[in-house]
Amino acid sequence: MNQEWINALIGGVIIGLSVSIMLLMNGRVTGISGIIDGLLGPTKGDSLWRLLFVAGLVLGGVFMMPFKPEAFVNTVSTSDLTVAIAGLLVGFGTILGSGCTSGHGVCGMSRLSPRSFVATITFIAAGVAAVVLFKKLGVYL
Amino acid sequence: MKNAIAAFVVGLTFSIGLVISGMTQPQKVIGFLDLFGSWDPSLMFVMVGAIAVHFVTYRLIRRRKSPLLDETWHVPAKKEITPSLVVGSLLFGAGWALGGFCPGPAITSLAAGQKQTLIFVISMLLGMFIFRILDKKMKFQR
Questions:
Q1: Please, what sign has the CA dihedral across residues B73, A100, B50, A25?
Q2: CB atoms inside a 10 Å sphere around CB A136
Q3: A54 part of a folded domain
Q4: Would you state the pLDDT for residue B22?
Q5: Residue A121: which domain range?
């Protein structure tokens, strides 16, 4: 095990504990795409927790920056247009597919949800295939 | 209000986990997906660690009648594998590979204030918004 694997494992354990707090306290799945989407068509009394969750996500980044500045360096060189298309695909795809890496990949897999198994295998396989294609097309500059 | 404070703590701890794990580095995400190239398996351990913990805690927590700050559980119970689930996940996977960001790490990376992260997040919100508009007409069976 090299240090990066150990860090990944430690980070994963923290994420596992974090989603457990959400379940124990609020009885909810920590599905980040869904939590964000709920802010786009807000229902009364259902927005504050979503907003504070997102604020926590950003503040955690601010807090960690001095300790691990390299975690905030994006060395993938692509055009702004490519990044915009990536964002559109992630936004549209996660809502059509009812979840992302957190909701399906962590929470759903942990409770052995068949839908989350299918979703997780599908988005990882699609990602692997897409990297092969994007490398051929020279998308990563 | 208490549930919002709990959600804040979850957001905070979740993002600390993301930063430590390496998930906020698009180059590592693309390296993880580059199975047929120079594969970097490290991010696999994020899922291993998170699932190992939550597989156990989920079962312990669900023994309770209700969560601590709510009367009922809000855990999805749907079981059908729909075309939307598969197509949506395909699109998400492609976008994940293209930008190296999934939703959580993109939001956390906003902390560094880089232009491309902001472009990604705004486009992601736009993608979610476009879904809402299309869904009104097409009524996707998710």
A1: negative
A2: 8
A3: no
A4: 97
A5: 75-141
Residue A130: closest C-alpha in chain B? B94
Q: Which residues of A touch B123 (CB under 8 A)?
A: 83-88, 91
Q: How far apart are the first and last CA of chain B?
A: 31
Query: Is residue A1 one of the residues assigned to a domain?
Result: no
Q: How far is CA A100 from CA A59, A124, B53, B112, in A?
A: 21, 11, 19, 23
The answer as to whether A114 is a domain residue is yes
Rounded CA-CA distance B57/A99 in Å is 21
Question: What domain count does chain B have?
Answer: 1
Identity of the residue numbered A22: M
pLDDT tens-digit series, residues A99-132? 999 999 999 999 999 999 999 999 999 999 999 9
Q: Does the interface ipTM go beyond 0.95? A: yes
Residues 12-31 of B with CB under 8 A from A: 12-27, 30
Could you list the residue range(s) of the whole structural domain that residue B113 is in?
2-138
Contact yes or no for A96 and B132 at CB 8 A: no
Amino acid at B104: G
- Count of domains for chain A: 1
Alpha-carbon distance B98 to B78, whole Å?
30
Q: Kindly state whether residue A27 falls inside one of the protein's structural domains.
A: no
